[in-house]
């Protein structure tokens, strides 16, 4: 084994040895060395979302985090090439912020059920139906949808974004669960109108949502939490705000992926249950070996799961898949994304 790969293998064995088979650590440490060499040759930066599988997450990214954190890193990088270990809307966001740089997405078909749930024309139709109402769009959308929005948000700053508008009524797209959770936190009554239906009477305080869901977070239920509490009464349950409102209400804490990671790091509960994408639970467990994280891994995001060490290497080697955003869309989308980043 290459000496550099040997060192990386030994480091990962310490943190991931209880989660990942030894042969996988051995094999992928050599791929990681190849990637790191290609990264230097191409003056590239690698961004890794919290949902990346453990070996990738703990080896090659220069920066790791949630959508907001990585958007900030993408906006400030001085590298020529950005490799986004995440799904298409994330890579598009990096391109929106860095039009002169090459942005690569390792898996060509890594999409998102939320991003697929709404189109730019859907947003335009809602704006025609509710003229003058500001549009807040979750960052989990494609560039043309962002371009029709006034401001974007992430799960971490959604409430701050809504409150920053200082308006009684907002259109919040496309995640119906995140919208419902934000509506509850901000005291807004929420409706989910049909585009072609009659105009709903706007109340003094109201939010207009959309029927989009994350196919991962939609699978968690109140029964899951209650069954775990029966066995572990002192468990602290953390949920992502893309989970159904009744699941969030049943939990002890709800926040973005970064916020959940920090919660586990900073608290001393006897047990934790983290209800989000499976790989993130493994990544938190690896980073906090002294903490007892219970396993309730029902599903991996099929899109995040497409990102592998092998296709990260190949993306740098063969310059694929290159992400482009038409300039007329990029300029308008930039305004919404930039406003999101400034909110913090």
Notes on the protein architecture:
The protein is of the alpha/beta class and about 350 residues long. It has three domains: about 5-110 and about 305-320, Rossmann fold; about 115-215, 3-Layer(aba) Sandwich (Rossmann fold); about 215-285, NadA-like (Rossmann fold, 3-Layer(aba) Sandwich). Helices cover about 45% and strands about 15% of the residues. It contains 16 helices and twelve strands. The protein has helices at about 5-15, 20-40, 55, 65-75, 90-95, 115, 120-130, 145, 160-165, 175-185, 220-230, 245-250, 255-265, 280-285, 310-320, 325-344, and strands spanning about 45-50, 65, 80-85, 100-105, 135-140, 150-155, 170-175, 190, 205-210, 235-240, 255, 270-275. It has a five-stranded parallel beta sheet, with helices on both faces. The protein has a four-stranded parallel beta sheet with strand order 2-1-3-4, sandwiched between helices. Strands 11-10-12 form a three-stranded parallel beta sheet, with helices on both faces. Helix 5 crosses helix 16 (about 325-344). The N and C termini lie far apart (about 45 Å).
